[in-house]
């Protein structure tokens, strides 16, 4: 059973609850460790990230919760860093590398805002070609492979967030798959850990986690390392869908997940494997 979630947002970025509330909820949900993964600032105004000048206060707040709950639940100080973020990554226990923004030349858009915005940026930035948008998106993930401080690949196919209800992308198209697999190859070669992320399920957008089953099978074929995370933005979601995510990982052929132990990442057997 998975007892760790390294992907958590609080009131310090775009989450609904305090660090303490989330930590106690994680303990009540049976987790033995919780990592906060603050959204680092973007190079333009954004309401969902930490404001850089608040980083010292935030770091102190995480340390206080960690100390207060010592012996009850282990607390880690992580970051969810976007390739466009300019904030240095020193001082974090671990880093999730995620892409939230897509751009063509000088113009760009958030990728996970609404189905309408998704259709609009495909039309306006990529001439209506979802495949071209997917190529631009996955090229950024490919670039993450070169960032040594990134440990975990966050929500690898976030761009398909609305596809279960509003068809924006064709994840089976040859161009989409080639772009995704190119990025995957680079990230696996760099030994990055891919997360199975249940956050879009808990928030009602999807019935399946990121990455898709098809991509998970490709990851397993490449002997990639995986972890399971909730991308939690509220106390109700700190371990959301973990049993289902673990079952999916086992079904795709994985025998272990990787977890952070305070120093580095270690494999934990799943499904009686290992
Ligand atoms: Zn994210
Ligand atoms: Zn997140």
Distance between the termini: 13 Å
SS-based class: alpha/beta
Bound molecules: zinc ion
Q: How many strands?
A: 11
Task: Compute the CA-based radius of gyration.
Answer: 18 Å
How is the largest sheet built, in terms of strand order? 1-2-3-4-7-8-9
Main β-sheet, in a few words? 7 strands, parallel
- Count of separate DSSP helical elements: 8
Spans of 5+ residues with little confidence (pLDDT < 50)?
A: none
Kindly report the average pLDDT value.
96
What's a concise summary of this model?
This protein is an alpha/beta fold and 274 residues long. It contains 8 helices and 11 strands.
Q: Can you offer a commentary on this structure?
A:
The chain is α/β, with parallel strands linked by helices. It is built from 8 helices and 11 strands. The protein has a 7-stranded parallel sheet with strand order 1-2-3-4-7-8-9, covered by helices on one side. A hairpin with a 2-residue loop joins strand 5 and strand 6 (107-110). Helix 4 (130-144) runs parallel beside helix 5 (174-189). The longest helix is centred in the middle third of the chain and has 16 residues, at 174-189. It is globular and about 55 Å long. The mean pLDDT is 96. The chain binds zinc ion (ZN) (2 copies). One zinc ion (ZN) binds next to loops.
């Amino acid at each position: 059973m998975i007892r760790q979630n390294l992907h958590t947002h609080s009131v310090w970025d775009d989450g609904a609850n305090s660090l303490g509330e989330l930590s106690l909820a994680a303990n009540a949900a049976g987790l033995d460790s919780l990592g906060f993964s603050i959204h680092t600032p973007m190079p333009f105004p954004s309401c969902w990230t930490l404001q850089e000048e608040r980083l010292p206060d935030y770091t102190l707040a995480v340390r206080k919760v960690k100390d207060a709950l010592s012996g009850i639940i282990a607390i880690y100080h992580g970051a969810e860093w976007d390739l466009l973020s300019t904030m240095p990554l020193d001082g974090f226990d671990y880093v999730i590398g995620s892409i939230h923004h897509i751009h063509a030349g000088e113009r760009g858009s958030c990728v996970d805002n609404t189905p309408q915005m998704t259709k609009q940026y495909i039309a306006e930035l990529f001439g209506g070609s979802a495949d071209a948008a997917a190529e631009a998106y996955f090229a950024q993930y490919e670039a993450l492979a070169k960032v040594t401080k990134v440990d975990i690949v966050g929500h690898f196919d976030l761009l398909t967030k609305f596809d279960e209800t509003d068809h924006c992308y064709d994840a089976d198209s040859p161009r989409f798959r080639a772009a995704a697999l190119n990025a995957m190859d680079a990230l696996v070669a760099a030994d990055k850990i891919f997360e199975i992320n249940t956050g879009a399920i808990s928030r009602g957008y999807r019935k399946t986690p990121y990455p898709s089953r098809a991509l998970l099978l490709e990851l397993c074929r490449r002997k990639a390392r995986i972890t399971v995370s909730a991308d939690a933005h509220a106390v109700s979601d700190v371990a959301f869908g973990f049993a289902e995510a673990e079952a999916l990982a086992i079904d795709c052929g994985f025998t272990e997940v990787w977890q952070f132990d305070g120093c580095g990442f270690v494999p934990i057997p799943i499904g009686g494997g290992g």
